[in-house]
Amino acid sequence: MIFLGNHKNNKFVIHQKIINENKFIMEKNSRQSIIEKILSIKKNKCTSNNDIKRKILSNVIRKQYHDKTQKKEMAIRFKWKIYNTIFAHLGWVRSIDFNYSNSLFFTGSSDRTIKIWNFPKGRLLSTLPGHIDQITDILVDQDQDLLYSASLDKTIKCWDLKQNRVINQYYGHKSGVYTINLFNPLKILFSGGRDCVIKVWDTRSNKEVNSMRGHENTIMKIISDRKNPKIISTSIDRTIKFWDLRTAKCTGSINKFNNALRDLKLSNDGFIYGVSIDLFFKVKNSENNKIVTPLFNLKKSFFTCIDLSKKGIILTGTEDGFIFVWHKFKQKLLNKLDVNMDKRTTLDEKNSIIDIKFDRTGSRFISSDTSRCIKLWHQRSPY
């Protein structure tokens, strides 16, 4: 070994290095002892592994709940804006629906035609003529490429969307048909209208299976509960009726309304949301329930239609051209949209909302009004 400089100084340097190494070892040991002490304290607090697991699970649940509430709050913060206005038909657009993949939407009009549009751009793809009177309702079968349309010509037509042609027709109503719906588990179609009768059709044999009577005036809406073999109907006679498909009989009725009922929607939370001429309300989806919960009373105008999304947003349209946006969980008004925007000058020029429909994602919707236009809306952030 070669030492540079004084021998004593070199010895001192070596000795200093040994002292430093010992200090490092001592510090390392002290750190380990501190960590062990912390772990022992934690073990004393949590007497078993189950306690530790419970604490971890509770923290995870808290985080998940926080994330869900944040998402709901973000949904509330978004506003709605028209991104496309289309002069769609020569008559009023009475009904709107989307296909399962959300790539197309369909409009049925009082000009007796159905039109197929690209979504979300709103480009016209095809026009389907065939009815000889106004089309009142359209419905897409989500399990097959089929479209059903109801009309004031007393018929229901089934369209093959691959070939864009009528493949089946249903005759039996004595007057105009206003509403149709499907119960896919049993392949059954329902229809109701001015003759106050609900017709039950087998879509496999294309024959009438049953007729259900009980309403005293025009049937405006029929909705089906996919979990149970029953349907719910509403009418101008100011009642909501529950029907059992197995017996084809009315199992319950709610008749606590002051005015004609216009529209109903079934929600996943076990409630039915609906509108009468002057009232936005909800009722429990049960035959034994007689309680109607009023959510909003409209005085200067009247409601025309309703729709709700999977995100918990509810839309209600009015006769004076407004769309009310509600939060289902908090049951409060989020926004009030004017379809006429800045074009309104006098009361004679106002346009009534006829139909509103959310797309499959709930981030866009389409509205139709008496201007014969359809308006495509999307969410935009206020920030």
Q: Any low-confidence stretches, pLDDT <50, length ≥5?
A: 1-15
Order of strands, widest sheet? 1-28-27-26
Let me know the number of strands: 28
Tell me the overall shape. globular
Overall pLDDT confidence: 83
Please characterize this protein's 3D structure.
With about 375 residues, this protein is an alpha+beta fold. Helices cover about 20% and strands about 45% of the residues. It is built from two helices and 28 strands. The protein has a four-stranded antiparallel beta sheet with strand order 1-28-27-26, with no helix packed on it. Strands 2-3-4-5 form a four-stranded antiparallel beta sheet, with no helix packed on it. The radius of gyration is 32 Å and the shape is globular. The chain starts with 6 loop residues before the first helix and ends with a strand. The relative contact order is 0.10. The model is unreliable at about 1-15 (pLDDT under 50).
Descriptive tags:
4-stranded antiparallel sheet, 2 helices
List the topology elements.
Layout: H1 7-45, H2 49-77, E1 79-87, E2 93-98, E3 104-109, E4 113-118, E5 124-129, E6 135-141, E7 146-151, E8 155-160, E9 165-171, E10 177-183, E11 188-193, E12 197-202, E13 207-213, E14 219-225, E15 230-235, E16 240-244, E17 249-254, E18 261-266, E19 271-276, E20 279-284, E21 292-297, E22 303-308, E23 313-318, E24 322-327, E25 332-338, E26 353-358, E27 364-369, E28 373-380
Antiparallel strand pairs: 1-28, 2-3, 3-4, 4-5, 6-7, 7-8, 8-9, 10-11, 11-12, 12-13, 14-15, 15-16, 16-17, 18-19, 19-20, 20-21, 22-23, 23-24, 24-25, 26-27, 27-28
